[in-house]
Amino acid sequence: MPDAVNGRSDGAATSRSPGQHTRRYDTSRRRAAAAQTRSRILDTARRLFLSQGYAATTVAAIARGAAVSPDTVYTVVGRKPAMFRELIELALSGTDQPVPGTQRDYVARMLAEDDARRKLAIYAHAVTAIQGRLAPLFLVLRDAAALDTDLRDLWEEITERRAENMRRLAADLASTGATRTDLTVEEIADIVWTMNSSEYYSMLVTDRGWTPDRFSNWLHDAWCRLLLSDPTHPV
Q: Out of 1.10.1200.10, 3.40.50.300, 3.40.50.620, 1.10.357.10, which CATH number does the structure's domain 80-235 have?
């Protein structure tokens, strides 16, 4: 009787060849191994950058720590500036891939929220989570940017990105009609920009021992008092 699918009577046509299964399996396994290697290199680079500083950390040391060759480091991630950029972007996104600021989950939730206090609550929580990952790296970047041209460019790029993102946030807050009338959008952006910084987080959480929850609650309360015409309106 002919096969119902392909009209052939030989059973071999109804199944994929063994080679197809093997190639698919091998490809999947190679991708997983490559992802693990990349993650191991980046984890090692982060640890060394934080413990030794940017200048003292070499690609050779990163390779040894990740149990790969220097050529593998260059092939999988790139040179030191590329590695550091990748670590910054991953810290900002909170995922294993860089995510543009406008596409992050908390931004969508803020834009969907009508109440200014709730917008600020979402953002205070997000800033605290981001800085827990980012602040140590960003302080290394700040210090290294004074001596390394590539990192100076990265520092300036991220600084401008932050400023532009704050202008968007300030405009969104102002659109609710709840912000103080004596503050311009630029002033609101500048206030938030200074208080969401790695330096601010590090001074209170790292240096003064505040818990992340305390810091998040403080940011929310401070922004409401500084920016809103009625800071006591309940969330």
A: 1.10.357.10
